[in-house]
Structure formats: C-alpha cells, structure tokens
Amino acid sequence: MPDQGTLPDQAPPRPPGAPAPGRASGGRRGHRHRKPVGRGSFLSRKQRLAAISLLVVATFCVGFTNGFGSEASAEPTVQAFLFDWQSGHYAEAAALTTGGAALVSTQLAAAYSNLDASNRFFAMGKVTQHGDKAIASFRATVDLAQAGQQWVYTGQFKLISRDGHWLVDWAPSVINPGLGAGDRLAVVTAYPQRAGIQDMGGRPLIVKSADYRIGVRPGELKNATATAQDFSDVTGLSEQQVVGQIKAAPPSDFLSLLTLSPAEFTALWPRLSKVPGLSHQLRNERLFSSPAQEAVGQVGTEDSAELRAEGAAYQPGMTVGLGGLQQLYQDELTGTPTTSVVVVNAAGHTVATLWNSPGGHAGTPVRTTLDSKQQTAAMTALAAQSNSAEIVALDARTGAIRVLASRQGSQGTLPSGGTLDAKVEPGMAFSIVSAAALLSKGIGMKHPLPCEPVANVGGQTFTYQLVTSTTATLASDFADGCGTAFANMSRTLTPQQLTAAERAFGIGAKWQLPLSAFSGSAPVVSGAADVAAQATGAGGVLMSPLGMATVAAEVAAGTGHSPVLLSTDQSTTWQAPLSGKQLTELRALMRLAVKKGSAHAANISGAPVYGQAGVVKAGKHSYLSWFVGYRGGLAISVLETGSTPHQAAAALAGAFLKAIG
User: Fold this and answer.
1) Which residues form the NTF2-like N-terminal transpeptidase domain (predicted)?
2) Checking DSSP bridges between strand 149-162 and strand 133-144, what pairing results, if any?
3) Domain topology for 5-181
4) pTM of this prediction?
5) Domain 197-364: which CATH class?
C-alpha cells in the first residue's frame, strides 16, 4: 500500500529536517538566537470531519481495488487517529482506541506537552492487514520549541477489528515504541562546559572559583507554574520559557535554572530563597574568575542582559561572553549543546534515551601568548599597593604579549581603555624616542646639554623642578628626565627627523590584534615649539601601556615587532631606527636611568634592568607615573596613579621583575 503522506492541516506540512519555526538559520552565533515558537492552530470540527470523510472514501476505494473484499480497510481509522492526535483533538482520537477514553486522552495530551513541543506532524506509512488484525506505521516530526530542534522518529501500533470497526490497540508504545507502562517522555538539553582560554603553554587563564546553581527538582514542585512565575519575577526571565523547561525535564533530577557568581548570589538569594521549591548547589568551576580579566573578558549566564537584548530563548546552562576574548570567540568556546529525548519511568528516573540531536560538540579552547605565571605575579604585585596601576610585558624578540595586568586600587583612577587601548601622555618616558632621534644625528651621550629650570623654545616655556646642572650631558639629562634639556636640544631636530623616529618605533602603526588596541599617536609637527613639546612626551603625543612596551622591546631586540595576543597569530617586523654604536648608546642611557637616575627604584639585583621613567599631571591633585624598559628579553611598561609627582611606577616595575626572577 503506498504511503498516504502527511496528514492535512491548515498550513502546508514541513518536510522532516526543515528548520523548526523560530530556529536561527545561518550566522556564526545562530544557535544563540532560538526563540519560543507559538502553538499551531487546529482545524475546525467541520473541516476535520470533511477531511476525514474524503480520506475514508479514498482509502476504502484503494482497499477495495487491492482485494480487501468484505473486510473493511484499517487505513481510515489510522488516518483519523493520527489526524485527531496531530490536531489536538485527543478525545476523538481516544475514541478510536481500545483504551479508556479519559486515560488515552490524557496520555496523548501529555505526550508532547511534556517535551514543550510546539508542533507535531504525522505521516502515515505502511498498513499491513491480516483478517481482523493490522499493524500501522507512521513517521512523527516533533518541533522541540525551547531547544530549537526537530525530533523525527518512526512509530508503529496494532489495530484490531471489533464488530466491523477498526480500533487502535492502545498501549503507551503507540506514542513511541520506547514507552512502557507508567513511562513518560522528557527532554534534556545539555550544554558542554565552556571551553577555556589558555596561556602560551595551554594552562588555563580562568581559575576555579565558586558559583551557585539555582534550580528545582521538577517532581517535587507543588505548582510548577507558580514557582516559574516567582522565579521570573526575581530574575526577569520569561515565565513561559521557564515553566516549559521545568515541565520538559526529568522529574527526579536537579534542574539548574540559573548560575550565579558569589556576588550575584549574595544579592539575589534573599529573594530567590522565598520561591517555592527553589534550592541551590555550590560548585567550584572555571567560569567567572581570571587573573587576566581585561584580555579574557567575563562570562554571563542565563539572565544576562545581552542574551535578552539579542532575543535568545532561555536555555538553562547557556553562557555568553561579555567583553574580551570570551565575547569575540563566543561560538568557539561554547560549542553546540546536545538535546536528548529520554524516557522517564514512574519513579521519575531516566531509563532510556530515544534520540540525541546531531552536531552537539564541546567548545574549542582559545590559546593566547600570555604567561599565566607572569600574569599572576603581576596581579600579586598590583594587589600589594593601594594605588591603581597597570603592567604590560611582552617578549621583545617576538612581540608576544606575556602580561596584561590591571587593578583599580583604592587610590587614583586609571584612564579608560586599559592596558591595550588607553590614550595617555607619556611624558619623559617618551625621551627614549627623542633620544634615538638625537643619537641618529650623531649627538653622543657625552654631548654637553645643561639642565636648566626654564627653557623657552619657539615661544613656549618648559620647566624642570628638580635638581638642575650647568655641566650636564645628554646621558645625565636622560637619566634624570630633564625636560628643559630635551626641549633645548630638540632645536637640532627637524620636524621630519622626529616624526621619522616616531614612525620607526611603530607609533601609529596598524596592529592586527583581536581586541581594540592603540599603538600611539603623534600629531604632525611644524615649528620648533611643537618639536620641543613632542620631544618631552607632550604636544599631543598619546600612548597606551602596550604601545610604550613595544618601544622598549624595540630597543631590547634591535628590531621592531608588532604585538600579538593569540598563539596562532604572526608578528610583523621592521628595522629599528638605530643600530650598532648608536643602539648601544641608547641602551646605555636606559641602563643609566635605572642605575642612577629617575628610574632607580627599578634597579634590582641580578640581570640588569634598562628603562626610563616619566610623570604626567592627570588632574588637580593626581598624577600618572610611567616606567618603560626591559630586562633580558622581556620588555615591560608600568603605569601607576598617584597624588604626588613621585616616580612610583619604577618601584612597581622592580617588584614585578623581582617576582618573576
């Protein structure tokens, strides 16, 4: 007997495998945009009877021509039963079975509502008839609304003829072959654990920390709808979607509805604890805490405002990246969840799995160039002081970023943008660049260069408030950070020469980093005053901590490298502005500044430290101090807040370098 096809409905049936209504299609983050699907509308009684009459007549004719003789065909009953079941006319469908009307009607109604299914479609298959017994097969397509998945299976049931009327021989297996007495269907969507963000050696950059799973045991709830409503009132989640998840879950298992950080738990639990049937479980997972928060980003859970803004359907276990690499690599880190249709017995235990959605897989870790040991050492050094500060470190030989550490302390406010994207005046820390420009003109370290209290260049006045000297040289002026000396000496530089040095240090270069980052900027200069201002790290020059670290790295390596944050990325290189004797002299200037000058606080024992310090005014009573330098192959940049023009960043740099050895 040929397949009679999908049963009629008001809308043309979708072929199995077509996306369920509301499912996202296409896009890298499509799986996060599943929306709840509305329940399908049913045919009127008049339309249904008309359709069944046509099916009965057509099927009877087919049965007659196929030699059924005086025995009526079972197919009209199969068609009518499947159509009534599909249309939601459970009492009418029950009347076509051998079971009790009330019992069968209830079981048919509950079968897919337990799955929170939005629609179901049945296609009649082969009907085999032998005397007063028959076996019918059908294909069911069930839209699992909350999961955005489509479950397709083949069913089969027996029929018997009584007094010339065919009836479905009722048993729970009519609904699905896997169901036995007392069993019910349930759906479970399991999200894989969010994949980690790793350091250069594959070590996790997300550390284990406490989190709280707020949830219920569905079978223990007196009123699931009331619990969902109260829970939604506190969290802002969709009541309809929450109750759908509760009703679709296995009744005896703990169903986690929401994951909270300790701070969120403290804020919400006083209200959540009053929700009937709600409990919590304390866990220790790699989810919320990282020593490299700026680069890594944060993770939001089921009640995240971003998920709501995107219209993503509520799904227990869903996570979303909030900033940093967590957001940028959301799809890679989350993987794809697996939705399962399971059989739950009368005791509430899962006894069988009928179907698993295809394509479920774990997330893929993202490996960075960061060094977790150095990152932790940096965070420890930052935590030991009250001032707010930032530390950047990178491999001078490759441009690989090793540390991006930032901490907002009790004293001072860090500039916006963080270690990567802040735009800060560098002050005399920028004299590394202007000294390179002077050395390239043949001006040596011992060149006489008085350090005076006041210098006037091109009509602009520059001042220096520390110890001055009329017998100073370029070397001592650099070491002491004498701005007036560099302002005066800049007269020997043309605007083009200073600009060339800035560009040779990569200032203004286009980096290919995954996160927003600032390589620095220096306005076009024309007159002597502009050149003098930029030579002292003012005049509109702006740098990020990462940008200044790349300046130090170029001196250390003798070659420029663009910074990289991901292990799979490649740095671009360029020739440093100095080489040979001139590069050696610039390194000597930086060593002198640490050994005897303004950066002396960074002079720790062991391998020599090279660097330069600077202080810039950030407000009425606030300052930002810089240290920019290197030790061995590691270049660093430190920015620290303060209430006085003290070179505090150099001491912090020393503490960090001492900690990493």
Assistant:
1) 73-182
2) antiparallel
3) Nuclear Transport Factor 2; Chain: A, (3.10.450)
4) 0.82
5) alpha beta
